């Protein structure tokens, strides 16, 4: 016998006589005997349904206890496809919820409340649809987190640039990616923004090219100036030979011929900016020693007063002396990324949660 339908009929039989007594022409009154009979029949039916209810409760308890170990067994094949921690956690919880809901369905089915279970499932789906529209941005961010954890376009401690922000990856949670820029600031970027924008990874390939420009006069031997620049670059221990360095003529200015020096360094060990600074200092000293002129932009001077008594006096500037201080910090060409990683490890974590990559 359907327990749900029986309950409905019994409640209807109990209420109908009471309502009928309020009418102007009562048909019959509810006696204590009828009430006792209805209660007795209800208890009798409940006693008959007690084994099924007990079995349903046992089914819920068993499904609840087996949900966790079974979910671990079911996601084992997923480990051969992806190593994403977030994907494993989400899939395991999904299987656990499905197993527990199966136990609830068994309980309602044994209790004769199948229609009630279908109504609950339908209401749950409608509520889920409403919540999906209400929290669309959160859902988009969560899905982006899962895709990032599966595809892994970068790793922890990589130097990346996303949406115009450059920094070292410190943490990637289910909500945001935390970068530490080269000013020491923590930047939290939502994972949806990270996934939808261009990701520039500066650490995936440790070889990084740097360049700078220097202008020389047109009266110099251009080929000899290029050879001097190549010699200075090749003698620097931070510059790697493969790919080779280049000294190219970039443009012809009004007063100078502009040379651009391209060089390659191992960005995991050396800073491109620091190496470029050291090369420029060495190249300027070399050009000055070899009498390679580096003139400023050409200027035209017009003298309005040409009287004879106003003779021009040439003043000789005192020779410049070279003063060298013992400052080893100018020779530091180490990578700044290592300093930022160390600062990130020592700083306070701005967001709770474990890494998903």
Automatic annotation (TrEMBL):
Q: Where in the cell is it found?
A: Cell inner membrane; Cell membrane
Region: Disordered, residue numbers = 309-357
Q: What is its main location?
A: membrane
Q: Which residues form the Mechanosensitive ion channel MscS C-terminal domain?
A: 212-279
Q: Which Pfam families match?
A: MS_channel_2nd, MS_channel_3rd
Q: Locations of Basic and acidic residues compositional bias? A: 338-351
Residue ranges annotated for the Mechanosensitive ion channel MscS domain, each copy included: 137-203
Q: What is this protein called?
A: Small-conductance mechanosensitive channel
């Amino acid at each position: 016998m359907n327990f749900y339908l029986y309950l409905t009929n019994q409640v209807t039989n109990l209420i109908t006589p009471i309502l009928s007594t309020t009418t102007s022409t009562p048909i019959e009154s509810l006696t204590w005997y009828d009430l006792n009979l209805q209660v007795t029949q209800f208890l009798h039916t409940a006693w008959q349904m007690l084994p099924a209810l007990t079995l349903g409760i046992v089914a819920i308890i068993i499904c609840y206890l087996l949900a966790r170990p079974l979910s671990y067994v079911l996601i084992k094949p997923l480990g051969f496809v992806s190593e994403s921690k977030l994907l494993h956690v989400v899939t395991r919880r999904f299987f656990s919820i499905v197993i527990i809901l199966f136990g609830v369905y068994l309980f309602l089915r044994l209790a004769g409340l199948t229609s009630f279970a279908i109504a609950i499932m339908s209401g749950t789906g409608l509520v889920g649809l409403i919540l999906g529209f209400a929290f669309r941005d959160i859902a988009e961010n969560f899905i982006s987190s899962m895709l990032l954890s599966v595809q892994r376009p970068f790793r922890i401690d990589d130097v990346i640039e996303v949406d115009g922000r450059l920094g070292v990856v410190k943490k990637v949670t289910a909500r945001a990616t935390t970068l530490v820029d080269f000013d020491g600031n923590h930047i939290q970027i939502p994972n949806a923004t990270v996934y939808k924008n261009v990701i520039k990874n500066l650490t995936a390939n440790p070889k990084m090219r740097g360049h700078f420009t220097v202008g020389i006069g047109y009266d110099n031997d251009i080929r000899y100036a290029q050879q001097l620049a190549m010699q200075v670059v090749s003698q620097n221990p931070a510059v790697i030979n493969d790919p080779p360095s280049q000294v190219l003529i970039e443009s012809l200015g009004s007063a100078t011929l502009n040379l651009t020096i391209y060089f390659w360094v191992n960005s995991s060990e050396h800073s491109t900016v620091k190496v470029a600074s050291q090369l420029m200092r060495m190249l300027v000293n070399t050009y000055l020693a070899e009498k390679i002129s580096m003139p400023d932009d050409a200027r035209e001077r017009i003298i309005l007063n040409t009287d004879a008594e106003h003779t021009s006096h040439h003043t000789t500037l005192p020779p410049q002396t070279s003063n060298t201080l013992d400052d080893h910090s100018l020779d530091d060409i180490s990578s700044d990324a290592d300093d930022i990683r160390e600062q990130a490890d020592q700083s306070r974590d701005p967001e709770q949660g474990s890494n998903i990559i």
